[in-house]
Amino acid sequence: YLFFSLSGCPRATFAGKKGKLSGDEILNTKFKTSDVLENDEEIKQLNKEISELNESNSEMEAAMVKLQSQISTMEKNLKNIEEENKIIEEQNEALFLELSGLSQALIQSLANIRLPHMDPISEQNFDAYVNTLTDMYTNQECYQNPENKDLLESIKQAVKGIQV
After folding, report:
1. N or C: at which end does the chain have fewer Cβ atoms within 10 angstroms?
2. Domain, as residue range, for 149
């Protein structure tokens, strides 16, 4: 009988060498168990961080929506205030024109009536003249003498026709 040995066959030698890997070679060519565990922990940590970032982003987006809503409300309020101010300005202008007309009518009506210790009424002394008239009518008891009573009656008659 002839015994054949695989040791002499080049193909068998290569196949044998291929199948016989040392333990170090196996660990170097494949993932080590500790590497897999480390990678798994890193993935879990990354997933946790991604989840936290998503939550943070959601909170920031909600805050932005709220802020935009507040800004929109403030802009509407500002627009309303501006419209109200415009109406008030128009009313003030109308009142100023009316006051100006009343002032002129009062100056014309009282042009011939002289108050004691005052020049005749004019635009220059109008405020002082009106203050004096106001004082006279507020404190009529101080003006009870006949001369002052006649003056107050003359003023009443002079301004009687002014439309307010």
Report:
1. N
2. 110-163
Q: Give domain status of residue 132, yes or no.
A: yes
What is the distance in angstroms between the CA of the first residue and the CA of the last residue of the chain?
146
Q: Tell which residue, 128, 146, 130, has the closest CA to residue 138.
A: 130
- Quick one: 68 and 119 in the same domain? no
pLDDT at 2: 47
Give Cα separations from 130 to 35, 41, 133 (angstroms): 99, 91, 5
126-138 and 146-159 helices cross at what angle (nearest 10)?
A: 120
Give the distance, in angstroms, between the CA of residue 140 and the centroid of all CA atoms in the same chain. Answer: 54
Q: What is the dihedral of CA 23, 24, 28, 31, to 10 degrees?
A: 50
Give the per-residue pLDDT at 41.
83
Residue 26 lies in a domain: no
Residue entry with tokens 């003006």:
143
Last residue of a domain, one of 62, 96, 130: 96
How many Cα atoms within 13 Å fall on the side-chain side of residue 83? 6
Last residue of some domain: 43, 68, 96? 96
Our measurement of the distance from residue 63's CA atom to the centroid of its chain's CA atoms, rounded to an integer in Å, reads 15
